[in-house]
Specification:
By secondary structure, the chain is of the alpha/beta class. About 35% of the residues lie in helices and about 25% in strands. The two termini are about 50 Å apart.
């Protein structure tokens, strides 16, 4: 009995992999689209992942036809090539469904900006806190900016205190992603949702 080479064993364990071709198609070659001579030997994997041994390509096509399934080329570069008997339509449906579900789960994180003034009143401050909390609970990041005008630049500690109050008012739904940093006349801080903290941990 011939020994199964490591590469063939690898493909057997991991199952069906798309073959990269020139047009980057995800589709595999199946049945008569596999351009092999009828007498060429191929290694066959059954529908339940069982090893069925080496047979001629024509015999492999007959085996797939008898099972009412497709013959799918999964390892063209192996020696001998590896084919699997499977329901290719079902495989494609499940693959496309997994990809679609994965895209749905991908969350697009936006950065929302909240601007504060040094002389902001309490009501306006609370309104902007509530707006930021809404963004954060939806999964977005928030950039909080304090703009200094004229001589206000000499009292940057007021901006620091303002940002500290702001982050404290949101601390149950956020983490400070980036500490306050002065850029020109703007002191900015980034807040991230609590879920970001959980993910990092």
């Amino acid at each position: 009995m011939r020994k199964v080479c490591f590469r063939t064993f690898f493909y057997f364990i991991w199952g069906c992999f798309p073959i990269k071709n020139n047009n980057n198609s995800k589709e595999l070659l199946i049945n008569e689209k596999i351009n092999f001579d009828g007498s060429k030997e191929v290694r066959i994997i059954g529908a339940d992942n069982e090893q069925l041994g080496l047979v001629s390509f024509n015999r492999a096509l007959d085996m797939a036809d008898e099972a009412g399934l497709d013959l799918v080329l999964i390892a063209a570069q192996a020696e001998p090539p590896v084919c699997r008997i499977m329901d290719y339509g079902k495989y494609r449906y499940e693959r496309d469904k997994r990809e679609k579900d994965a895209k749905k789960k991908q969350q697009v994180v936006e950065i929302k900006e909240i601007q504060l003034s040094v002389r902001i009143d309490t009501n306006d401050f609370n309104t902007k806190v509530n707006r930021a909390r809404g963004f954060l609970t939806r999964g977005d990041k928030v950039k909080v900016v304090v703009r200094f005008k004229g001589r206000q630049m000499t009292h940057q500690e007021i901006g620091q205190e303002l940002l500290a109050r702001f982050s404290a008012a949101c601390e149950d739904v956020c983490i400070v992603d980036k500490q306050p940093k002065l850029e020109g006349r703007f002191l900015s801080m980034f807040l991230a949702p609590q879920t970001t903290k959980t993910t990092k941990q």
